[in-house]
Structures are given as C-alpha cells and as structure tokens.
C-alpha cells in the first residue's frame, strides 16, 4: 500500500497534492451534507405535487365521465325510440316531411348541450338518416368499416370509435363516436346501426386547463384527444404508457433522464377504458426548489472558490520555483539549451537550480561536438558510397583497351568499350555529385546498347519522360543500377521479350520516377526482405557487396542527399513484373550549378 501511495505521489505535483488535500478535507464533506439534505426535501415536494396533480386529473376525468354518460343515455333514448324503430322497419312508410320531423325531434334532441356533432341511423338495406347533411356514399363507407364488422360479431357491445374526420359534408373535425346496434324490442332482430358522435374538441375542453401536455388515450393506447392535433390517431409514446405497469387505474411515474426527465400522471376512466395522461417537464414542476438549490449552490460555490483560490495561491508560492525548473528541464528534451534558470527560492531549490545551470552548459558543449562529428561522419559516408560506383581507374583502362581494339581492327569491340566508357565517364564526380534527369536517361541509353549486344531483340526499353522534366536535378548514376536489377533478376529468365518502361512526373513539388518491367516478378518473402532492407536505418554489412551497390546504395544516397522522406520503394507480384519508384524533390539544375547542402 505504501509503495502504491509513493508511486502516486510521484505522478502528482506538490501544488496539486496541496489542492487535492483541501478538496478532500473541506469540499467533499460539504457536498455530501448538501446532497443528503436536499434529496428528502425534493421527495416531499414531489409527493405533494403528485397529490395535487391527481386531484386535478380526477376532476377532469369525472367531467369526461359525465359527458360519456350523457352520450350513452342519448344513444339509448334514440335506439329505443318507437319512431326510429318504425323508420328502420319500414323506411318507405314515412313521408319526407315525417322523416325531417323525426330528424328534428329525435336525432337532434340533445343538441341543447351544444356538444352533439353528428348522429346517424342506418338500416341494412341502404337507407341512412342523419342529423346533418351527409353524402350518400358515406353509407357504403360506414358499412365497410372495421368497427362495424366487429360490432356485428358482438351485437350487445358498445364501441367507442375515434375518427380523424367527421362523416358530415362540411364539418370535418375529428370525432369520438359511440356505436351500437338497434334491435326490435320483442324479437331482438337487428334493424340497423346508431352512430352517435361528439367533436374531439368538446372532449378536450374538459382537460384543457391542466398543466403540461395532456393526452386522452383509448383502451388500445391510441390518442383520441390532445392539444397537439398532429398527435391525434397516433399511438401514445411507449415511455409515457406507464399505466400498463401499474395495478391501479391512477398514479404517477418519472420517466427519462437529464433534460428529458418528465413527471407522468395518469387517471383511468373505467366505463370507457380511456386514460388521461399528463406529462410535465420535471424542471418545470420543481422550478422553485431548483431555484433555491441554484442559489445555495451559487453561494456555496463562491465560498469554495474563495478557499480554492487561497489554496492555489499558497500552493503556487511553495511550488513555483520547482515548476519553473521542471519546465526548463522539459524544454531540454526539445533541444532548448539556451535558457538558464534564475536562482531564487529556498536553499534546497537554489542548490538544484545552480546544478542545473552547470549541467546545461556542459550539455551545450557536448551537443556542438556531437553535431560536428556527425557532419564529418555523414560526409565521409557519402563519399564512400559514391566511390563504390565511380572508379576513375576503370575509365582510363577502358579507354586504353578501346583504342587497342580500334588499332587491331576490332571495331565492334571498340564500340562496346566506347559505350561502356561513356557510361562510366558520366558517373565520375567532377566537382558535383548531381546530375540532370536528361543525363541519367542518356546513361541508360548507353547501358541498354551494351545489354542489347547480349540479348539482341529480346530486350527493349521505353522512355516516357516529359520534355520539361529533363532538367530536373537527380543524383548521379541513379537509374542504371535499378535497370540492371530488372534485367538480371526479372527479364533474363523471361521466355518472351522483356520490356522496361521509364516514367517521370511531378506532383506538388515532388519528382516521381518509376522503372517497371514485365519480368517474372519477385516472390512475397523476397519482396518483404527487400522492403525491410530499404526501410532499415543502417547500412548492410560490408561482405554483402552486391546488395550495397544495387537498390540499397541508390536508396541511401537519395536519403543522404535529400532527407528521410525521400528514396526508393519497390512493389511486385510473382509473374507480373516489378516496379521501383524514386521519390525526390523537384529541383531544376542550371548549367554550371553545384548542389548546395
């Protein structure tokens, strides 16, 4: 345990340890006490608010019950009226005036309440009498409805039906309808159907004074009345259908979290199976307590902030010298060695600051020596690499052999030696290790002339180098080793004709060269070995001479000349040839210009 605390203290600064200690001793007990005093208060207020909301819902529910009872009584009166039964038994027995008088006296008898929206009496042979004008085709629409089919299977049942539009010609408001069958009193023979409707707005008038969002849902959870008319006919959102989880027909529940937290009150109307659902944002209900809590938190926060500021000030006075020293030492990781520390603070810290200043001076001297040695080493390394492919004595010897061949009449041999000498002459450093892309292409042409003497028409090379790139700067003898590898390892064992393609283009200041062949390709293991080889930070061992003079040598020269972001990349698939990509900066080399490091 002590070891863990020791490791933890090493990772936390002295300043933060002091602040953390104050937080534990002062702030956390205060927050703990505030939390356990505040929760009981919120619970008590919630209970009182819930009781008040339930009483309001109860009153609204009773009003809706009275309205539905009125609809039930009126529907019974119409269904049992002898004149209505006579109309359904023999529609042709009544004159148009008698039908009109029946409509006024029977169907509109409850219009005194100003709540009746629509009453319709229909027989089974196509006749319909309504309290308001209705289009004749409405009869067929009603007869095809699902609710009527359900009613025919349960003739003694009363159905409550919600509809988005009324059946009347002009009044298209949503309605809630009571539907029942009309039967003969003696035989109980089915004579017709009674549709008794109220406007949804009339029902909503009983619940419109309640706070929050109010929904009246039927037994299936469909919203049949609401202040938001776009919700009518839709299912009550699942999170608000809390009444399904309760044993009683009324109650309260809290749903959601954070800003979406809601207080849901519900009241069930037993005779219809409807439920009034009231949804109030939690923050609105507890606004007053939240305001008091906010004021308490503000005052407490100001006191705590004052204590924290005082603590930070004390901690800074103690830890400031050490913090400055840590920043200076961290800056040393970014090679910032020119900022000694001003000696101040307590005795122990002053000793550390003096020691740091002495160490800083020694590091600066050591860094200068290391930079000088590294520069000399890289220069010698570059010269050694260049010397591997630029032997002067070979050129002189070839020239002597060439002229001897001409004197003896061996003209073909002389031409071969002349091409080889021209190739080597271009690789010899004469005041600069740089070349142009055009000169590199000429070296390749000389080299291919020599190779064609061996391979005849089996070997061909294609150059796709734009004219404006021929003056681009390159390092000397850069392309030939790669072409030699393509011939030796890719084309020599190829059954057919071997073609090498040299392409060049520049993108965003970068010169990209590719040398592709149609040879036998490289195996996956060998390709991974070559790619690892090119990515290595150090040169290979001296005894691996062939590799050092090939791809790796060119790759190293490019990196030494231009930096780590440049060099070679190789890609291949067995049987599909290989491609080597050169990446170097696009620079134009002028006549007589030497490359400057």
Strand order of the largest sheet: 2-1-5-4-3
Task: Provide the β-strand percentage band.
Answer: 15-25%
What is the first-to-last residue Cα distance?
A: 58 Å
Low-confidence segments, ≥5 residues, pLDDT <50? 1-5, 539-549, 591-597
Shape: elongated
Largest sheet descriptor: 5 strands, antiparallel
Radius of gyration, CA atoms, in whole angstroms: 49 Å
Q: CATH superfamily assignment of the domain at 55-284?
A: PAS domain
**Number of beta strands:** 17
What do we call the CATH topology of the domain at 55-284? Beta-Lactamase
Q: Which percent range fits the helix content?
A: 40-55%
Describe the structure.
The chain is an alpha+beta fold. Among the domains are: 55-284, Beta-Lactamase; 337-385; 460-585, Histidine kinase-like ATPase, C-terminal domain (Heat Shock Protein 90, 2-Layer Sandwich), CATH 3.30.565.10. It is built from 17 helices and 17 strands. The two termini are 58 Å apart. Residues 1-5, 539-549 and 591-597 have low confidence and may be disordered. Residues 316-368 form the HAMP domain. It comes from Paenibacillus nasutitermitis. InterPro entries: Bact_2-comp_sensor_kinase, dCache_1, HAMP_dom, HATPase_C_sf, HATPase_dom, Sig_transdc_His_kin_internal. It is a multi-pass membrane protein.
């Amino acid at each position: 345990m002590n070891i863990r605390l020791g490791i933890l203290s090493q990772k936390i600064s002295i300043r933060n340890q002091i602040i953390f200690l104050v937080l534990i001793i002062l702030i956390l007990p205060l927050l703990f006490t505030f939390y356990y005093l505040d929760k009981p208060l919120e619970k008590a207020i919630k209970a009182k608010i819930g009781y008040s909301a339930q009483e309001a819902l109860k009153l609204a529910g009773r009003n809706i019950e009275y309205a539905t009872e009125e609809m039930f009584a009126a529907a019974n009166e119409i269904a049992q009226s002898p004149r209505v039964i006579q109309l359904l038994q023999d529609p042709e027995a009544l004159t148009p005036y008698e039908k009109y008088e029946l409509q006024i006296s029977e169907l509109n008898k409850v219009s005194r309440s100003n709540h009746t929206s629509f009453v319709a009496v229909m027989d089974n042979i196509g006749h319909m009498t309504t309290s308001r004008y209705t289009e004749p085709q409405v009869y067929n629409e009603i007869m095809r409805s699902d609710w009527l089919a359900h009613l025919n299977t349960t003739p003694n049942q009363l159905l409550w039906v919600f509809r988005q539009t009324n059946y009347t010609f002009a009044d298209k408001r949503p309605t809630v309808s009571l539907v029942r069958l009309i039967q003969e009193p003696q035989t109980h023979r089915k004579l017709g159907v009674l549709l008794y409707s109220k406007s949804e707005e009339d029902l909503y008038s009983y619940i419109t004074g309640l706070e929050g969002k109010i929904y009246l849902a039927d037994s299936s959870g469909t919203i049949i009345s609401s202040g938001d008319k776009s919700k009518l006919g839709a299912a009550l959102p699942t999170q608000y259908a809390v009444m399904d989880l309760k044993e009683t027909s009324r109650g309260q529940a809290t749903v959601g979290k954070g800003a979406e937290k809601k207080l849901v009150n519900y009241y069930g109307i037993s005779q219809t199976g409807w439920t009034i659902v009231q949804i109030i944002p939690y923050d609105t209900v507890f606004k007053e307590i939240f305001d008091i809590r906010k004021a308490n938190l503000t005052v407490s926060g100001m006191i705590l902030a004052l204590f924290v500021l005082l603590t930070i000030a004390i901690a800074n006075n103690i830890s400031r010298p050490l913090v400055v020293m840590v920043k200076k030492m961290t800056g040393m990781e970014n090679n910032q060695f020119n900022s000694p520390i001003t000696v101040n603070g307590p005795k122990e810290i002053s000793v550390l600051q003096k020691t740091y200043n002495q160490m800083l001076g020694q590091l600066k001297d050591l860094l200068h020596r290391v930079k000088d040695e590294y520069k000399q080493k890289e220069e010698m390394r570059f010269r050694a690499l260049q010397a591997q492919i630029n032997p002067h004595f070979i050129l002189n010897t070839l020239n002597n052999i060439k002229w001897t061949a001409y004197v003896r009449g061996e003209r073909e041999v002389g031409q071969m030696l002349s091409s080889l000498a021209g190739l080597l002459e271009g690789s010899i450093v004469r005041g600069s290790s740089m070349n142009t892309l055009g000169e590199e292409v000429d070296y390749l042409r000389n080299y291919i002339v020599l190779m064609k003497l061996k391979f005849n028409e089996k070997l061909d090379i294609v150059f796709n180098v734009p004219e404006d790139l021929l003056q681009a700067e390159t390092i000397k003898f850069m392309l030939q080793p790669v072409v030699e590898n393509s011939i030796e390892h890719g084309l020599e064992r190829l059954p057919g004709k071997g073609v090498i393609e040299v392409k060049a283009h520049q993108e965003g200041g970068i010169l990209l060269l590719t040398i592709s062949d149609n040879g036998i390709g490289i195996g996956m293991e060998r390709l991974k070995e070559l790619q690892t080889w090119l990515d290595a930070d150090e040169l290979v061992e001296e005894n691996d001479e062939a590799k050092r003079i090939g791809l790796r040598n060119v790759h190293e020269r490019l990196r030494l000349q231009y930096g780590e972001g440049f060099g070679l990349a190789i890609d291949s698939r067995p049987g599909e040839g290989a491609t080597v990509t050169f990446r170097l900066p696009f620079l134009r080399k002028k006549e007589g210009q030497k490359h400057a490091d």
